[in-house]
Design a protein that fits this description.
- The chain is of the alpha+beta class and 282 residues long.
- Strand 1 and strand 2 form a beta hairpin.
- The termini are far apart.
Length: 282
C-alpha cells in the first residue's frame, strides 16, 4: 500500500479513516472516541508503560496499547468491552493504591467512569499504605514529590531524546524499588540538570511541580479555576518560543508552552520556563 494512502479500520462498529502512519489512539481521537492515557503525550515518543489505553484488537490474544500500535487496513478495534473496562479499572486502582493521585486531574474522571476504587485493597481497619517520603525541595524552581510518581517515564523522555538531550534523570532500581533518579542519586543542583523544566511540563501527577505552585498549594491558596492564561512570546532571544502565562491574583504563578507550537512543541529552556520574576520587579 502507498504510504500516503489513508488506512481504513473499524472502531466500535464505526468505519474510520485515518492518515497513514496513525496509531490506533490517533484514529480513535479522530473519530471522537476518547481513550484514557497517562504515559502518552503528543510531543513525546510512546513508551507503553501505563497500559490505561489498551484496546481489544480482533485476532490478537492480548490487549494492545492504542498509543503506539499503528492503525492498519481492516483492523477491528473495540475500546469499550468488559475486558477493556476491567483492565483499565485495575490499572487505575493499582496506581491509586500505591501513590497519591490527588493531583492527577486527567485521571479523576476516568477513575469515576470505570468505578476504580483503590481503597478496596485495604485490609479491614487498615488503610491502603501508599508511598510515603518527604518532598525534595532543593532549589526555588521546582520540587520532586515521589509520593505522586507513577513511573510514566515522561520526564525521562523529555530530559532525553525527545527534547532536552541532557539525560540528567533515568529510572533507577528494579521492581518496587524503581524510581526516577539523578545519576548516583546526587542532589539536583549537583546533577547534569539544566533546569529547563521540561520534565515538569509533562508530569501528569504533580510529582514534579513548580515551586511557586507547591508553595501556594501548601498555603491552600492554589486556585486554578480563578487563573487566567495569556499567550505571549519569550523576550529573551529571537527563537520565538510561545509562552502561556498562568496568572493568579495579578501575579504569574507558572509558565508553560503549547505542545502543538511549531517552535517549542511544548518545551522551553530555563529562561522561558523560569525567568519571568523580573515582571514583578522583585
Amino acid at each position: 500500500m502507498d504510504g500516503s494512502t489513508p488506512v481504513r479500520l473499524t472502531i466500535d462498529g464505526q468505519e474510520v479513516e485515518a492518515p497513514a502512519g496513525s496509531t490506533i489512539h490517533a484514529a480513535c481521537e479522530g473519530a471522537g472516541i476518547s481513550t484514557p492515557t497517562l504515559c502518552w503525550a503528543e510531543n513525546l515518543t510512546p513508551v507503553n508503560v501505563c497500559r490505561v489505553c489498551v484496546v481489544e484488537l480482533e485476532g490478537s490474544r492480548a490487549l494492545v496499547p492504542a498509543c503506539s500500535r499503528p492503525a492498519e487496513d481492516g483492523m477491528e478495534v473495540r475500546t469499550d468491552t468488559e475486558r477493556v473496562r476491567h483492565s483499565r479499572r485495575m490499572v487505575l486502582e493499582f496506581l491509586g493504591s500505591g501513590v497519591d493521585l490527588s493531583q492527577a486531574e486527567s485521571l479523576h474522571a476516568w477513575m469515576e467512569h470505570y468505578g476504580a476504587d483503590p481503597d478496596r485493597y485495604a485490609d479491614e481497619g487498615h488503610p491502603v499504605e501508599r508511598i510515603s517520603e518527604p518532598v525534595k525541595v532543593q532549589d526555588e524552581l521546582y520540587v520532586r514529590d515521589y509520593e505522586k510518581c507513577v513511573l510514566c517515564y515522561k520526564c525521562v523522555e523529555a530530559c532525553g531524546d525527545d527534547a532536552q538531550h541532557t539525560y540528567a534523570i533515568a529510572v533507577a532500581g528494579r521492581g518496587f524499588d524503581a524510581r526516577i533518579s539523578t545519576e548516583f542519586d546526587v542532589a539536583l543542583p549537583e546533577s547534569a540538570c539544566v533546569y529547563c523544566g521540561n520534565c515538569v511540563g509533562v508530569c501528569p501527577t504533580g510529582a514534579l511541580q513548580f515551586k511557586t505552585e507547591f508553595d501556594l498549594r501548601q498555603a491552600d491558596q492554589w486556585r486554578p479555576e480563578e487563573q487566567t492564561v495569556t499567550r505571549t512570546v519569550c523576550s529573551y532571544c529571537g527563537v520565538g518560543c510561545n509562552l502561556d502565562l498562568h496568572v493568579q491574583d495579578e501575579r504569574i504563578v507558572k509558565v508553560t508552552s503549547p505542545s502543538d507550537h511549531s517552535v517549542t512543541s511544548g518545551h522551553l529552556c530555563i529562561k522561558g520556563r523560569f525567568g519571568w520574576e523580573y515582571v514583578h520587579g522583585e
